[in-house]
Amino acid sequence: MPNYKETYLTPKTELIKRIKDFQSMMQTEDLDGALISQSADIVYFCGTYQDLHLYIPAAGKPVIMIRRNIDRFRTDSKLDDYPVIKLRKFSEIIRNIKEHDLPVPKRLGLELDVIPASVYLKYKQLFAGADLIDCSSLIRRQRAIKSDYEIARTKETAKMMDNIFNALPSIIKPGKSEFELAGDIEKIARREGHQGLIKTRGFNAEFYFGQLLSGPNSAMSSYFDGPINGIGLYPEFPFGPGEKIIEREEPVLFDYVGAKHGYIVDITRTFAIGEAPDMIDNAYKVAEEIQQVILAKALPCMPAGHLYDLAFEQAQKHGLTDYFMGAPYPVSFVGHGVGLELNELPVLAKGVNTPLEAGMIMAIEPKFVFPGIGGVGLENTFVMSNTGLKKLCSFPDQTIIRL
Amino acid sequence: MPNYKETYLTPKTELIKRIKDFQSMMQTEDLDGALISQSADIVYFCGTYQDLHLYIPAAGKPVIMIRRNIDRFRTDSKLDDYPVIKLRKFSEIIRNIKEHDLPVPKRLGLELDVIPASVYLKYKQLFAGADLIDCSSLIRRQRAIKSDYEIARTKETAKMMDNIFNALPSIIKPGKSEFELAGDIEKIARREGHQGLIKTRGFNAEFYFGQLLSGPNSAMSSYFDGPINGIGLYPEFPFGPGEKIIEREEPVLFDYVGAKHGYIVDITRTFAIGEAPDMIDNAYKVAEEIQQVILAKALPCMPAGHLYDLAFEQAQKHGLTDYFMGAPYPVSFVGHGVGLELNELPVLAKGVNTPLEAGMIMAIEPKFVFPGIGGVGLENTFVMSNTGLKKLCSFPDQTIIRL
Lengths: 403, 403
Known about the structure:
Two copies of one chain form a homodimer.
Chain A: H1 12-28, E1 33-36, H2 39-46, E2 52-57, E3 63-66, H3 70-76, E4 84-86, H4 93-99, E5 107-110, H5 117-126, E6 131-134, H6 136-144, H7 148-171, H8 178-191, E7 210-214, E8 251-260, E9 263-272, H9 278-297, H10 304-317, E10 333-337, E11 344-349, E12 361-364, E13 367-370, E14 374-377, E15 380-385, E16 388-391, E17 401-402
C-alpha cells in the first residue's frame, strides 16, 4: 500500500503529550473521559483523520475505535501504543470501553459545538444517566497553545504563502476578472502543496481559499464572520471572488488562507494598479500603524481583548471607527487564533479576558471598509513568544503595493 | 452595492413552490412548522445563503430572521413576499413567530442531522415542551426530485464538466505529479465558473474537488464514504491527489465533482498513457456493461436498491465481486443523488426500497478496486425522466481513454 514519507507523520512523543495534557485538563474539570470524533480534533490527537471515535479516559490508555479504514490509521498515525479496534456498530462503544478495563464514564466530554444533534441523541441513549458535557472548550484552549512541532509546521505554511504572494505582482493585471485571477493563484497554491480544504469550526462556516476582491466588491460582506467576504460568483455561494473585472486605481484586496500539513496561515495585502483612492491609501496607513502598535505592546499575560482595544483606539484617533473591521456589519474582533482550523482561540475581540500566552499563533487583521468604494487592510500571522509577537511571513507589508 | 445579474437569481415562483410543497409535506407529517438554518437547505428555499433562521409554518407565511447581512439577502433572494427581519438574539425567535401571528409550534421540525448538539440544546430550552422532530428527511426527500429549473442549472454544470474533461487529454502527461495536475485542472474548472466549494451533508464529510489518482493510489480508500478516496498529500488530509508521479501503463482515475450555481454533477473517467494492465481494462469493460444494463432497465417506480442489484449481478457474472465498489472497504451503493449537495437522495444501495421518480438526478458510478494495483471505473450523472435515465454530460465514455 502506498505510504507517506516518515517525516510527514506527527511524532509519537508529540501525540502522546497532547493526549496526556488533555487528560490533565479533564481531571481538573472532573470529567471521566471524552469521546472525540470531529476531524480537526482527531488530527490533533492522532496526527491523521479517519472515521473514528477516540475515547480518552481521564486516566489510562485511550481506545481508538475505527468505523472504516483501520489499515490507513495504522500507516498514517504513530499512535501505536493504544488499542486500535474496528467499530462495527455505534452501540459497541460502551462494550469496547469496558473491555479495555476502563470505567464507563459518568461525566462524559463530547464536542457539543460540532457533533450533530442526531448523534448527540444517540450518545444520550447509549450513556444513559451520564452527564454529557461540552469538552470542545477544553480542547480548543489546549490547541490554542502550539508546540514547537506545530510552530515549525506553521512556518512551512508561511513559507508557502510567501511563495504564493511573491508570484502575485506578475499576475495581477487589469482586465482580468477576480475569479479568473483566483484560479491562477489557486493553481500556484496547489503546486506549492496547499491542501485546498480549509477547516473552519462550526455550523455552516463554509470557506474556500479566501478573498480576491477589487473596488466595491472588496467592501462586500456576507454570511461569514469576517470583516470582508466578497460578492462570490452567484447567490448560491455568495462568498469570495466574483465576475468583476479588475481595474486600475482601485484597491485589490487579497486575503488568502494557506493550509499545509494541516496548519493554517492567514495573510492579507492590498494592491493597487496605479494609485489607490486617497481614502484607501490613508486607511491602509492606519492599518499599518495598528499593526505596529500591537507589535510594540503585545506580551504574554495581556488580555486578548486588549489588542482589539489598541486597534480601536488607533482607528478612533484617525476618525475611522465607522469603517473599522467592516461596514455596515462590522465584526467585533481584530484577529483570531489559527492552527488546524481557521477560527481558533484566542479571539482578539472586545472584552475578551483570556490572557495571551507564549505559543499562541494568531492572525491579526486590521481592516477598513468603505461601502461602495472598497476595503483595505493588512493581515499577518504571528507566533507569541515570551518577548512578544513574531511575524511568520516575510512578504513585505510596508505599504499598499503599487504595480 | 454590487449585484448579481438578474438571471443568476432563482425565480420567485420557483422558491414559493418549494416552500408550499414543503408545507404540504409538513401537514402530512403533522408538523406545526420547521426552523431551518443549514446552508444547503437555506439555498434551496431562499435561492441564496445568509446566516439566518427560516421559520416555515405548516400553513401561512414564513418568517426570515437574519443574523448578519439583511441587505445581501434583499438583493440576492427573490423571496420578498415574506417578512425579513433582523435577529439580534437567538431568544427572539419565538417572539418573532408570535408577532407574525403564527402559533408557537408544538411539533417543530429541525435539521437534526446537521445542527450541532449545542444549538439543539438551545432550541430545546427555547421551545420548552415542544416535540423537536427531524425534518431533514422530509427536506431531503423533497430535494431529491428536481424541478425543471434545477435540471436546467444542472445541465449548465454538466456543460462545464464537459469543457474541463475535454481539456484533460492534452494536460495529462507522464512525469507530472497527481497534485500538480490537480492544480492545472482546478484552474480550468475555476475559469469555467466552478464555485470551488462542494457541499457534502453531514459531520466530517470533508471533500475537495475529487480524485485524480494513478496506479496504486487509485486503489486507496480513506475516511470518506466512497469507493476510492486517494492517498492525499499528507496524513492531516488523507484524501485526493498525492505526490505520486503519473506513469505510463497504469490507470489514471479522474473523479471530479463540478458545482456551479450551487448544482452538482459528478463524473469519473479512467485514462491510461499507453496500455492499461489487462485486469484494469477488463474491469473497465464490466463497468461500462453495468452502465448499459442500468440505462436499459432503470425506470420510475423501480426501487433504488434494484440498480445496485443489477450492478452487483454483472460484477458477479464476471467474477469481480471482491473488487466491486472498493476493496478491502467496499461501499454498499453504486450511486447517489446529487443536487446542492454531493450526497443527496436517493442512495442506490442494497436493499433501499425508495422508488425512483422522474426528476431525480443521480450519479451512477460502477467501480472496481484492485488493492496495490489500481482502481477503475466510470461515472455519469443522469436525470430520470418518465421513459428512463438521460445522461447529462456528453464527454465520451465508450472505453478507457488511451493517450
